[in-house]
Specification:
This protein is α+β, with helices and mostly antiparallel strands. It is 19% helix and 30% strand.
Length: 380
């Protein structure tokens, strides 16, 4: 089963390597923190311990406690993070990055998922604040092979947490990273020399490791908060779900005085199979607690069939609800796309076909959506 988010409270996190090293590294938070366990959204007393054996090099022993809760939501701090009228941009640049610290690395997917995706929590000490929908740059250690003596190029990763982080104290940021592995097409064997440098560095990191970050960057995926009753349609493939996790935690998990969301958030997530679902228990909990404000549709390409009997991709799932989606867009809904750039042609073709079936011009509709700032795309 995929490792997913669990109960709200955590006083301290102790991470012990299980590869024979007896050293124990500790990361203690004075405030609460979301953690990962096999059983989602459970309540623990301060003395209860839960050991989860992860399919990675580390095991986590977590001590859970009851968080400060306002209603059914978690209190966050410092609230001055709400004061700025404009998002922070490029506080740290590639030539002078900020040295942050790895708090935890957790495998998010189950054993039948193709590839490995990790949830990585980074401690920036409150020194690199960001807004939901922004990205951090990461500079992996070592030399750039194309420029001997120079550092590696910056790799951008969408931030998968709210501005308060998974510890709700404004000092951490979370990334959702898929390990990039190259397999030789002739031998079928992994070729480590061609693996993704940065993704493997992050997924192999251990608590206490240092990581150079830049940013934050990006404005196109910022969550518009001027209308708390707005509709937000979020479309993702794989790790493209990262910014939406931040949006949804802000909408449904955190008690933020400035933002009382009472609109509709609708998430379409496309992955290969059930084991590949990311943050599924967290999203399912919102569905249970806020059925009038949250919708969640999964497209599992290797397990589901579309109406024509082919693989179910995210655009096929959108097509199932096309009348509703177009009606919501006509009423002013925001629509977001995040994931691999290869997702967009199929989605655009589907939307164009649906528009034509409705007697509309997709080009004119898309132009209007962009003009109204309802159209948000971040693909890589």
């Amino acid at each position: 089963m995929a490792a997913t988010h669990s109960a709200f409270g955590l006083q301290g996190l102790v991470t012990a390597p299980v590869n024979g090293d007896t050293s124990i590294q500790k990361s203690i938070f004075k405030t609460q923190k979301i953690s990962f366990t096999d059983k989602p959204w459970m309540s623990y007393s301060p003395l209860e311990l839960n050991m989860r054996t992860a399919p990675s090099r580390y095991q986590s022993i977590v001590c859970m406690s009851t968080p400060t809760v306002t209603g059914s939501k978690v209190s966050v701090s410092p609230l001055h993070l709400e004061d700025a009228n404009e998002p922070p941009l490029n506080t740290y640049k590639p030539k002078e990055p900020y040295t942050a610290t790895i708090v935890s690395v957790e495998r998010l997917v189950g054993p039948k998922a193709p590839g490995e995706t990790c949830h990585i929590v980074i401690d920036h000490g409150g020194n690199v604040p960001y807004w939901e929908g922004q990205s951090y740059g990461v500079i992996p250690p070592g030399e750039n092979p194309k420029k001997p003596g120079a550092p590696h190029n910056v790799r951008l990763y969408s931030i998968a947490s709210t501005r308060y982080g998974d510890s709700f104290d404004g000092k951490t940021a979370s990334l959702c990273v898929r390990r990039a592995v190259y397999y030789d097409p002739e031998t079928g064997k992994e070729d480590p020399s061609k693996n993704g440098v940065c993704s493997n560095f992050l997924c192999n990191s251990k608590p206490g490791d240092k990581v150079k970050i830049t940013g934050p960057s990006g404005k196109i995926m910022l969550l518009p908060e001027d209308d708390p009753k707005a509709t937000h349609i979020m479309i993702a493939t794989g790790t493209g779900v990262a910014p939406y996790r931040g949006y949804l935690r802000r909408m449904f998990m955190e008690s933020v005085p400035k933002y009382k969301f009472n609109g509709l958030a609708w998430l379409f997530l496309g992955v290969a199979n059930s084991d590949s679902l990311l943050y599924d228990d967290e999203f399912s909990k919102y569905l249970e607690d806020y059925p009038g404000n949250f919708r969640y549709d999964r497209a599992l390409s290797r397990e589901q069939k579309n109406k024509n009997g082919g693989k179910m991709y995210v655009q096929d799932k959108i097509e199932e609800y096309s009348d509703e989606v177009f009606k919501l867009l006509d009423e002013g809904a925001h629509i977001y796309f995040c994931g691999l750039k290869g997702m967009m042609p199929g989605i655009q073709e589907t939307l164009k076909r649906v528009a034509e079936e409705r007697g509309e011009s997709w080009e004119a509709k898309l132009s209007q959506l962009k003009k109204n700032k309802q159209w948000h795309v971040e693909v890589y």
